[in-house]
Design brief:
By secondary structure, the protein is an alpha+beta fold. Helix content is about 20%, strand content about 40%. The chain has one domain (about 1-150): Thiol Ester Dehydrase, Chain A (Roll). Strands 1-2-4-5-6-3 form a six-stranded antiparallel β-sheet. Strand 1 (about 35-40) and strand 2 form a beta hairpin. It comes from Rubrobacter radiotolerans.
Length: about 150
């Protein structure tokens, strides 16, 4: 897997290995495409916002409710950003191993959906992280636990 990451980086930038620790997450299509913005990621914590548009809505019977698939997509980026903020000089990449999302109720957001994540445990190559997404009224609309695998230089 580590070899694949290096090969993909070399294809994107021939002659160079991509330094994932210095990437501006907000410039990645993964975040730009759905309208996500990483507000902060450091010391195992991250904050992310979704600038809500009509195509993010659906389900729940409320005109301002957010679709659960959008929330799950947001969690992958949010938790991943928290994990990447723990990288050390040996780390060259990461992948999501599991995401478990629990919806606490209808998630309602008029303009901005906000999420927070925090790394709870980090081993040599495995990182555990928790996240929350909040409705406009400040209530927790969904929680997520994730496990990520780090790829380290040998």
């Amino acid at each position: 897997m580590e070899k694949d990451l290096k090969e993909n980086a070399a294809q994107e930038n021939p002659g160079t290995e991509r330094d994932w620790s210095r990437i501006d997450w907000n410039e990645l299509d993964f975040l730009k495409w759905p309208g996500l913005r990483l507000v902060e990621a450091r010391d195992g914590r991250a904050v992310m916002e979704l600038h809500v548009r009509d195509h993010h809505r659906g389900g729940g019977g409320h005109p301002l409710s957010i679709n659960g698939g959008i929330v799950s997509y947001m969690f992958d980026g949010l938790l991943g950003a928290a994990v990447s903020s723990t990288w050390d000089e040996r780390t060259v990449g990461q992948v999501t191993m599991t995401l478990t999302t629990q919806f606490k109720g209808q998630i309602v957001a008029s303009e901005v959906l906000r999420g927070e994540a925090e790394v709870t445990q980090r081993g040599g190559s495995t990182v555990f992280v928790d996240g929350r997404v909040f409705s406009d009224d400040g209530s927790i609309g969904a929680t997520c636990t994730g496990i990520f695998r780090l790829f380290n230089r040998r």
